[in-house]
């Protein structure tokens, strides 16, 4: 009689345990990466009242089975659905990471490693990637010190992704640049005194930006031009000549000085300080023509130009040499045609058209580089005989007896081979870009961290506002032969056990087993509420049935006691 009662008691206890498992599952229905548990029962033991007997051939009797009475039920195993992937929930937080696959994050409390599927992470005050719930460090691999673009798998270590050293990316000086596009010979800008202007943006090695202004000028030779460096401006549009108090040629140079066959016409105009006189009337050989003008002091002046003695010649050429007295011509050029002292000093020969009154500069001393294109197909030929020129900065500069260090400027190799001389309806598209065609040598300013990106393989990259990226490390994962054998340690953590397999301290790349990480989402609980409620119903009925065993057994005992009456 007592056996049935104790069987009922064991039934109540095991069903209570099953209800505890179900209740825990339901309680954690919204717990990040929670893995549901299930319980199985087994018979407790049996009391054998009679052993089994075999057949007796002598007496002819048959065998009998053993007589055994069960003594109840017990909990056999509590299993965790560790391999069942939970649904994902989008959070938008870049430090929330979901593992797709059978791997586990490795985290540490500073002394022991734990394992988790809960990827709700954030960054602490010193830049470590940690669990948001308890501050445990997320473990991974660092960058190979000999190759900062590669990871060095080794014993896992805390991932410090936002340390003070990582918050900035150092500046770099520009060392290369290139020019590309079309230089149309019919572009009116190319034939003006200012020329076709192009700009090259570059950085010094301190990360300060500058803009180099170049001008392209045509010559009288088809397919030939010269390139001059006009100025270099800082970020405030201030010329470095003003900044350093020295001429540009003392700070930086390209090419060299040479005589260019240019054609910079300056026509006579009427202005407040100049009145055009008789315009070159001396068309008969041997006669003269007079040009009237107002000099710098406001006095009326004139210059007489002798016409050539040969018929059919329309120009009078005046070679300019140090020994030549051309004060009248110089005066005419400066006040009648608007030439500066420097422009006049650079002239080698002038030519005055006696029919039209137009002055032509036939030869001029320029400082720059000779740019040549093929007249047959418009392709680039050379610049100073090469495909590139060098923007050559001085290493230091002496100004008023004081040496100014210019070593923060680096020489820039300036490639022109990507240009051509094609017809483009009189519009040139030529322009300069810092860096080569692959972006190498472009230079950069000092960069501030602007974001963190975690790739599917767990590699962590920082991006900076100067366009650079840096590899910070890689999140390592752990894999176990029997993940279901892991022991739960609370707070969404697991510990390795003898039946799960050991962690080697290094971990693996998640992509090695076909898994991957997804950022901005979290793995949710894999609890199936419909299944849990169904199990709850059957557990309740089992508990009720076992309670009936006890009440009925008690009634029978009561009847037994009542026999004495």
Radius of gyration: 47 Å
Number of helices, counting only DSSP H or I runs of 4 residues or more = 6
Helicity, as a percent range:
10-25%
Shape: rod-shaped
Summed over residues and divided by their number, the pLDDT gives a mean of: 86
Give the total of domains.
Answer: 4
Q: Unreliable runs, pLDDT <50, ≥5 residues?
A: 267-283
The number of distinct β-strands equals: 38
Approximately how much beta-strand content do the residues carry? Answer: 35-45%
What structural category do the secondary elements indicate?
Answer: alpha+beta
Separation of the first and last Cα atoms: 20 Å
General description of the model:
The chain is of the alpha+beta class and 565 residues long. Helix content is 15%, strand content 39%. It has 6 helices and 38 strands. The strands form 11 sheets. Strands 7, 8, 11, 12, 13, 31, 32, 33 and 34 form a 9-stranded antiparallel β-sheet that branches. Strands 15, 16, 17, 19, 22, 23, 24 and 25 form an 8-stranded antiparallel β-sheet that branches. A 5-stranded mixed β-sheet has the order 18-26-29-14-30. Helix 1 (2-27) runs antiparallel to helix 6. The longest helix has 34 residues, at 529-562. The two termini are 20 Å apart. Mean pLDDT is 86; it is low at 267-283.
């Amino acid at each position: 009689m007592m056996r049935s009662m104790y069987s009922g008691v064991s039934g109540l206890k095991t069903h209570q345990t099953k209800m505890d498992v179900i209740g825990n599952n339901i309680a954690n229905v919204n717990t990040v990466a929670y893995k549901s548990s299930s319980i199985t029962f087994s018979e407790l033991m049996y009391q054998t009242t009679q052993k089994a007997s075999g057949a007796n051939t002598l007496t002819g009797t048959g065998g009998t089975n053993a007589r055994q009475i069960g003594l109840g039920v017990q909990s056999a195993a509590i299993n965790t659905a560790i391999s069942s992937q939970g649904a994902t929930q989008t959070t938008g937080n870049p430090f929330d990471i979901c593992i797709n696959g059978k791997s586990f994050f490795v985290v540490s409390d500073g002394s022991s490693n734990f394992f988790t599927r809960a990827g709700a992470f954030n960054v602490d005050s010193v830049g470590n990637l940690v669990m948001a719930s308890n501050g445990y460090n997320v473990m991974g691999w660092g960058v190979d010190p000999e190759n900062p673009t590669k990871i060095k798998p080794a014993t896992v270590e805390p991932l410090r992704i936002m340390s003070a050293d990582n918050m900035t990316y150092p500046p770099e000086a520009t060392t290369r640049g290139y020019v590309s596009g079309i230089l149309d010979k019919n572009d009116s800008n190319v034939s003006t005194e200012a020329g076709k202007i192009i700009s090259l943006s570059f950085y010094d090695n301190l990360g300060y930006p500058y803009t180099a202004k170049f001008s392209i000028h045509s010559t009288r030779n088809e397919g030939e031009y010269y390139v001059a460096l006009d100025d270099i401006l800082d970020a405030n549009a201030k010329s470095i000549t003003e900044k350093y108090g020295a001429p540009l040629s003392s700070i930086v140079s390209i090419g060299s000085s040479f005589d260019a066959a240019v054609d910079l016409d300056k026509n006579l105009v009427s202005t407040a300080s100049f009145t055009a006189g008789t315009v070159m009337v001396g068309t008969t050989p041997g006669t003269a023509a007079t040009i009237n003008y107002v000099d710098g002091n406001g006095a009326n002046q004139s210059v007489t130009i002798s016409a050539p003695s040969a018929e059919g010649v329309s120009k009078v050429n005046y070679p300019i040499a140090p020994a030549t007295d051309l004060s009248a011509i110089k005066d005419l050029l400066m006040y009648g045609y608007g030439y500066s002292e420097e422009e006049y000093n650079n002239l080698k020969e002038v030519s005055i058209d006696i029919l039209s009154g137009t002055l032509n500069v036939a030869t001029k001393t320029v400082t720059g580089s000779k740019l040549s294109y093929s007249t047959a197909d418009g392709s680039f030929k050379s610049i100073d005989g090469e495909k590139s020129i060098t923007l050559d900065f001085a290493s230091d500069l002496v100004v008023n007896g004081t040496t100014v260090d210019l070593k923060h400027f680096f020489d820039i190799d300036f490639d022109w081979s990507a240009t051509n001389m094609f017809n483009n309806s009189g519009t040139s598209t030529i322009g300069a870009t810092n860096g080569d065609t692959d972006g190498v040598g472009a230079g950069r300013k000092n960069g501030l961290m602007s974001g963190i990106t975690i790739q599917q393989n767990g590699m962590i990259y920082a991006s900076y506002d100067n366009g650079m990226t840096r590899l910070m490390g890689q999140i390592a994962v752990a894999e176990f032969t029997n993940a279901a054998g892991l022991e739960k340690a609370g707070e969404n953590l697991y510990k390795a056990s003898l039946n799960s397999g050991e962690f080697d301290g290094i971990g693996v790349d998640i992509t090695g087993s076909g898994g991957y990480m997804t950022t901005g989402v979290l793995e949710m609980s894999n609890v199936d509420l419909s299944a849990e409620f169904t199990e709850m119903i059957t557990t309740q009925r089992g508990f009720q049935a076992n309670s009936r065993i006890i009440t009925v057994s008690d009634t029978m005992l009561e009847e037994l006691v009542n026999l004495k009456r």
